[in-house]
Amino acid sequence: MRIAREILSYILIVIIIVIFRTYIMTPAQVNRSSMEPTLIDREIVLLNKIKYRITDIERFDIVVVKVANYGSLVKRVIGLPGEKVEYIHGHLYINNQPIAEPFLTNNIEDLILTETIPDNKYFVLGDNRNNSIDSRTFGLVDRKDIVGSIDWALYPFNRFGKVK
What we know:
Mean pLDDT: 91
CATH architecture: Ribbon
Structural class: alpha+beta
Distance between the termini: 51 Å
CATH superfamily: Umud Fragment, subunit A
Oligomer: single chain
Number of strands: 12
Order of helices and strands: HEEHEEEEEEEHEEE
Number of domains: 1
Low-confidence stretches: none
């Protein structure tokens, strides 16, 4: 009977871990350099899968998106539903208002979205704008294709901490 209880407790622990990693949080690896210098290639981060069930997606959130033919990609949310996004002379304008992007180290070519972003769609870009597969390539991202947010870097240890 004692052995059965011990086995049951291990099975319960495994079930809790699986549920936690499937629905709440899980480690993820950044692949590619499209988010440098914010996140580097092969960096281990914490993917928060439950955040957007509780809160809204905000501009400049770093998210994991699932994109057909590209898999899961880490990108930064730039444009929200109902907004018009433009880059003029390397500067971001949302609804004709300039928006600072302090995390950028390089600029983007001029870009004007011809339409307002529809409901439940988002415009996402990599921080390394000159080396990123993002909404300029695959278009707007559906809300349902945003897996979660990246808020913490775990490894390498010298980069451990909150991601900005």
